[in-house]
Design goal:
Blueprint lengths: L12 E6 L2 E6 H4 L3 E6 L7 H11 L1 H6 L2 E7 L3 H10 L10 E3 L4 H5 L3 E2 L4 E2 L1 E6 L5 E7 L7 H16 L27
Parallel strand pairs: 3-4, 4-5
Antiparallel strand pairs: 1-2, 1-5, 3-8, 6-7, 8-9
Length: 188
């Protein structure tokens, strides 16, 4: 299996449901800012709404860090709208819900399950240069935590700004970092 880390965001153009409207979103819209691609299996399911609500409840924190969130499934933009209109929980979602109807975006990120044409729970953080810095894929029965994703985004941003330092396990903004070097070998 080839890793997607440090590869460039693929070119794409998909319809989306965003704040009550249909809109076309492309890779050009993502350029120049941090982005979170949050793949999930399908609308009108069980774990998915809990994850999207969790992301929605922390959306302002992602925006404050200069990141846009893109929820992605192989559903259509019409299905996204119907889910939004019928679910009190999903009405909280303010970020774009991308309609990967052909599965091309899910396949490019390595999360498309060819057996059922649904995406696995893939989470990807893309830097402003369009390079994938974080990739995590869960089986569909395992939900994610947006607080942990916020922590990882902050760590990715810190490392991008301070290239000579790295963030140890459980690092949180303001915590001590490490400066790699021979003097640390065997000392941690």
């Amino acid at each position: 299996m080839k890793t997607i880390i440090n590869t460039t965001l693929p070119e794409f153009s998909v319809e989306a449901f965003v704040n009550g409207e249909f809109k076309r979103i492309t890779d050009k819209d993502v350029a120049g800012k941090w982005a979170i691609f949050f793949f999930y299996p399908a609308d009108f399911t069980f774990v998915c709404p809990t994850e999207l609500v969790d992301m929605a409840e922390n959306y302002d924190k992602f925006k404050a860090l200069g990141a846009e969130v893109y929820a992605v499934s192989t559903d259509t933009q019409f299905t996204h709208k119907a889910w939004h209109d019928s679910s009190e929980s999903i009405r909280k979602v303010q970020f774009p819900m991308l309609a990967d109807k052909t599965g091309a975006l899910s396949e490019a990120f390595g999360v498309l399950n060819p057996d059922d044409f649904l995406a696995y729970r893939g989470t990807f953080v893309v830097n402003p240069q369009g390079v994938i810095k974080i990739a995590e894929i869960n089986d569909n029965g395992i939900g994610r935590n947006s607080e942990e994703l916020l922590r990882k985004l902050e760590a990715a941003q810190f490392v991008a700004e301070h290239g000579d330092q790295v963030c140890p396990a459980r690092w949180k903004k303001g915590d001590k970092t490490l400066t790699p070097g021979i003097e640390l070998v065997g000392k941690i």
